[in-house]
């Protein structure tokens, strides 16, 4: 696979703007982090529902309340996973997510029974899958961001684990994707999978190795040990690649090239965050079982 300079320039320019927006949301404060991923959540859901409708036309027949209600119900998971420091006009987002979630749990089945033209369990299944695939994953990312700072008196340092872990995940995925693309473009020969024929084993393995090395080297700036940074990078790279393949499979089933067109050269929300959606739950498990 030869390196296409024009494609690389388009992707690089779009990525630069994308990175600036992402960094503003990631670094400003907890609320901008939440707002950023709330936008991403609804963008991913809109594209997921479109893909599901292209895969199975029956899903296009869901009622508007089902269509938007499941999005809001998923967003309630993000609200619920915040901590007490997330407040708007004195209202704790955690409590708001709890009560809104309860309302939708009871209201959605009733409204669906009363107003849906036809209730199909498979359509409920598609929406339930979306809740796990998109909403639960981003809620766990909010959960990681909500970890409270810890003051280590023996070292005289404030460990902002909740701030650093999401950055480590996202940086790992960015590094892995970029390095896999560059290495694959230069030396890639063996196709990784029929699902995504442009991906090669050389690029995939090279991207993962470089991702682990780079994250281990910058571990000091993330206030992580080099071992923890390397493990998080490896988890993010491996499961991020699986997430990329999963979304490619969905697009192939739907018969489309990109899930959306919001980012020239990069596609839509799902195209950009497919790796993150699968990687986050596994990093979350590592953090909760090992680092906490």
Characterization of this structure:
With 292 residues, the protein is mainly alpha-helical. 72% of the residues lie in helices and 3% in strands. It has helices at residues 5-27, 30-55, 64-80, 93-115, 121-145, 161-187, 201-217, 226-254, 269-291; strands at 87-88, 91-92, 150-152, 157-159. A two-stranded antiparallel sheet has the order 1-2. The protein is globular and about 60 Å long. The model is unreliable at 151-156 (pLDDT under 50).
Task: Briefly say what this structure is.
By secondary structure, the chain is mainly alpha-helical. It is built from nine helices and four strands; from the N terminus they run H-H-H-E-E-H-H-E-E-H-H-H-H.
Q: Layout of SSEs?
A:
Elements (H helix, E strand, L loop, with lengths): L4 H23 L2 H26 L8 H17 L6 E2 L2 E2 H23 L5 H25 L4 E3 L4 E3 L1 H27 L13 H17 L8 H29 L14 H23 L1
Antiparallel strand pairs: 1-2, 3-4
Helix pairs in contact: 1-2, 2-3, 2-5, 2-8, 3-4, 3-5, 5-6, 5-9, 6-7, 6-8, 6-9, 7-8, 8-9
Secondary structure category: mainly alpha
Which oligomerization state do the chains in this entry correspond to?
single chain
Largest sheet: 2 strands, antiparallel
User: Which shape, going by the Cα principal axes?
Assistant: globular
List the secondary-structure elements in sequence, H or E: HHHEEHHEEHHHH
Backbone CA Rg: 20 Å
Strand content bin = under 5%
Low-confidence stretches: 151-156
Strand order of the largest sheet: 1-2
Number of helices: 9
